[in-house]
Amino acid sequence: MADPPGCCSTCATCLLCPYSCQWITAKKEKRKGLRTTKYDCSWFLFLFCVFLFTLVWLYFAIIILNDFHNFNEFIFRQRKLWLDWSLVLLIATAVLISYSSVLLVLALCLQLCGQPLKLHWVHKILLILTALVVVAAFTGLGIKWAEEWKSARISLQATGPFLHIGAVGGMTLLAWPLASFIYRTRSTGLKVFLLLVYCAVMIALYLAPLGITSPCIMEQNQLPPKPALVGHRGAPMLAPENTLMSLHKAVDCDVQVFETDVMVSADGVPFLMHDEELTRTTNVQAVFPERAALNSTAFNWTDLQQLDAGSWFLERRPFPTVQSLSPGDRKEAAKQRIPSLEQALEAAKQSNISIMFDLRPENHSDYQNFVNVTLGVILQSGIPLQQVLWLPDGFREDVKQQAPGVQHVYGRKRLKNEEEPVLHVNLPYHDMSSEEIRQYRQDNVSVNLYVVNQPWLFSVLWCSGVSSVTTNACQVLKEMKHPIWLLPSSTYFMIWLVVDCVSFLIIIWAFVLMK
């Protein structure tokens, strides 16, 4: 097996060393008569599959970053340990994809240089471990976080055209090592099989755009207005969540609605708090250690006012943006206390923004009293009732009677036989398709989707025509003047034809050149 022209013995030796873990020169390989066996080919195929598998997991890891703060909160509630697990995920994924990528590149270069693909047993074990880790990751995702599969499908609307171009490019580059192997191997059956598989894959990729749909494939003049921003617990990347500082930071981000969560204290004071326990966002373990595990509603307002609701934000850094806060913002964050609903309503009234909230916990035995107390505070605050967006489903009819001006937002889709028209819906972003969003928009139904943090997701929903989005990253989405990409269908069709034609010519050239 002679080296092809231009592949020196030193280069071949340097490639063999990390792949086979043996420092044997190319000449010695020839003298020993080593060849790439079917067993070696099967390991190369396994390597290629592991690389693709890990690449798919990398894609999923990037997609689920939009929702990873929810995962961090879930781990904290279970283990009382705060860590930004997204960093662990990205580092581990980067290590796996880098390892399999390097091995694959080495194998392809060895094939081009005419050297045997003798994968060392250490690499074989590590590849099996890599595959098992990725399988475990996908399994865990499917069991504990199944809704992320819907997120992945939505992401294809943002990345589909570019994934198509990347896949065509990657398979086109494989033409060189494939041609080299086909011209060297003596098995006619293997040659025919590989060529048929390669041709089938390329034909499928060439025709893939027929199945690619995206709301962002449209003319510029068809683009709907930019969705309004709803601050998820305020601006939690810039200030401690559900505090007055967070509300004011959200106002600075031009949000139109402050979204929060309301609970009622033991002495009947509605206050802002998301978790049923106070441990994540206050220093309750230091102030009331024996009562730290109690429900938030078990504390009276005097006790709640003693708690620090801001220092945790600086200590745990729930978002990377905390590191870039100014000294003044850090000082202000450290002074935050749990605000009452009355204080939040007054701040919203002064800032001329709406407030939308859930009333928790829904399964509380005194929930009806919670509703009445909360309504009383709203009516006494003097805030225009059209600025109040009511989310809780419990005792909604009583709310309509006592405060008819309040806007009602439903956490479900419309029903076929609605007694009253549904004008506002609030749903997870993966629960509505682009077609449903367009239909609701045509029927003048306001659609708010949550929680949208990544620009790619905001772009897809913008193109779909969503009315507003709830976000943690209002400071990022505020700066977006247009979707990340917008392509007229005629332009995309031209890109599709050019990419396919160039790829086809390069493949023909590769086979002619290698011959």
TrEMBL record:
<comment type="similarity">
    <text>Belongs to the glycerophosphoryl diester phosphodiesterase family.</text>
</comment>
<feature type="transmembrane region" description="Helical">
    <location>
        <begin position="192"/>
        <end position="212"/>
    </location>
</feature>
<dbReference type="GO" id="GO:0005886">
    <property type="term" value="C:plasma membrane"/>
</dbReference>
<feature type="transmembrane region" description="Helical">
    <location>
        <begin position="163"/>
        <end position="183"/>
    </location>
</feature>
<keyword id="KW-0812">Transmembrane</keyword>
<feature type="transmembrane region" description="Helical">
    <location>
        <begin position="125"/>
        <end position="143"/>
    </location>
</feature>
<protein>
    <submittedName>
        <fullName>GDPD2 inositolphosphodiesterase</fullName>
    </submittedName>
</protein>
<dbReference type="Pfam" id="PF03009">
    <property type="entry name" value="GDPD"/>
</dbReference>
<keyword id="KW-0378">Hydrolase</keyword>
<dbReference type="GO" id="GO:0006629">
    <property type="term" value="P:lipid metabolic process"/>
</dbReference>
<feature type="transmembrane region" description="Helical">
    <location>
        <begin position="41"/>
        <end position="65"/>
    </location>
</feature>
<dbReference type="InterPro" id="IPR030395">
    <property type="entry name" value="GP_PDE_dom"/>
</dbReference>
<dbReference type="GO" id="GO:0008889">
    <property type="term" value="F:glycerophosphodiester phosphodiesterase activity"/>
</dbReference>
<keyword id="KW-0325">Glycoprotein</keyword>
<keyword id="KW-1133">Transmembrane helix</keyword>
<feature type="transmembrane region" description="Helical">
    <location>
        <begin position="85"/>
        <end position="113"/>
    </location>
</feature>
<feature type="domain" description="GP-PDE">
    <location>
        <begin position="227"/>
        <end position="481"/>
    </location>
</feature>
<dbReference type="InterPro" id="IPR017946">
    <property type="entry name" value="PLC-like_Pdiesterase_TIM-brl"/>
</dbReference>
<keyword id="KW-0472">Membrane</keyword>
<feature type="transmembrane region" description="Helical">
    <location>
        <begin position="493"/>
        <end position="514"/>
    </location>
</feature>
